[in-house]
Description:
By secondary structure, chain A is mainly alpha-helical. Chain A has helices spanning 2-6, 11-47, 52-59, 62-102, 109-124, 127-142, 148-174, 177-185, 190-205, 207-220, 232-243, 247-283. Chain A folds into two domains: 2-45; 64-274, MetI-like (MetI-like fold, Orthogonal Bundle).
Amino acid sequence: MTATEARRPSPIEVERQAFRRRQTARSVLVGAASTIVFAAAIALLILFSPGWPKVQQSFFDPVAWVGAWPRVWDGFLLNLQVLGISVVGVAVFATIIAFLRTLRGAVWFPARFLAAAYTDLFRGLPLIIVLYLVGFGIPGLLQQRVPVLVLGPVALIITYSAYVAEVIRAGIEAVHPSQRIAGRALGLTHGQTLRMVVLPQAIRKVTPPLMNDFISMQKDVGLISVLGAVDAVRAAQIETATWGNFTPYVLAGVLFVVLAWPMIRLTDWLSARMQRREQVGGAA
Amino acid sequence: MSVLSVQGVWKSYGDRAVLRGIDLEVAAHEVVALIGASGSGKSTLLKTIDLLERVDDGRILLGGDDITDPRADPDGVRARIGVVFQSYNLFPHRTILDNVTLGLRAVHRVPRDEATRRGAELLERVGLADHASAYPDRLSGGQQQRAAIARAVAAGQELLLLDEVTSALDPLLVGEVLELVRELKADGTTIVMATHEMAFARDVADRVVFLDAGEVCEQGPPAQVLGAPREPRTRAFLARFLPS
């Protein structure tokens, strides 16, 4: 194998590599040029539009940005807490629902039916309505105040579990039946087969759509402001009234984007990697 | 002139050199069988010929054109080569006839009527006329593989690459696929095939090429390479393969 390192590429290969390098350099240049032209066009369009000075003042005011920061940031921390609790809750609850839907046998009909009815209902119901029903219904039932750190996650878990359960179920069904048969042939029970053989493969298959739901949830935690909680969105609303300026909304928006961005990149990276692996497997 | 000319081709995956300076000439109407252990580079060589893998060094000429030149259009090259894979790879969402005519219509721009006519003719020849409107999952492995071969030659490709086309088949179904390859040879199709079917290689190939560790170890007429191998490595390989 040492011959590989010592081998010098032939003139043909050297020329090919040089050509590819030139091609790459050219594509980079073309890409850079088109990006600059495009960005310049957008910038000119915005900067020379008649209302720009006013828009700049009311949406991008540095003073309002700094002034609104403490309260919006505190609100954002509340969003993060709600998000953290909800993610764990959704993971557990959605897996249970998905599991119930895979049960076979007449005995389990009620469980299957309930799980199916649940996903149908809560995928159809707008999150904001669930928030109102939970936010005002549960305190009404209990006849006492319930902290938003409970109400927010409950509403989010109810809604998102319905979506995520369907994604997980799709993953379970996408695992080839031979895997289940192999598990049962080893003597594993239905539940063990699902837990040790099928689910790990299923989750891998549906990671990109799961991440997508997660990103979507990161933004939807902003809706808990309708419960009266001072989260980032509500804080921005208050600050907007204080400063007579929309910059706090932009600030809150930026915070949500910054939160979502690493997940979005991670999702892209994961999907790309999985695709590469599948292609390697297919060509072998 | 050779239909295919492989000249000093190298290919590595990471540190592992899979092809180590392969030279191979294939004349028109010639059937060449590549034999060798798993990992000897047979499949990789076929992939580099179809430009599914980029060579690290060396050249491959198809009908005299350097297809490893980065200026060559890889899709145009692939349209001139038919490939059949071990696992058939028929498109499960299309009928058998559709599978066979898709390349004609989408790549070679043959009008639908004409493509259908030629596809039906081909299916008749490979004995699948009755299954033209069936979907691949209704067919046996042997039938699927025959359909895949029909798909690979539908546009009159200059070269046909067969990558262990019988390895995934039930032994009872191997015969019908090999029979079809024999017919293609009789029609004058130029074929390069990687195979583990030594008896078939002996029977049908004009030349057998034994690959070992990414090098052409020995090549020649099947009777010589398989019957009286000169290289010790060939003898060792065949001894494992054909226990006497």
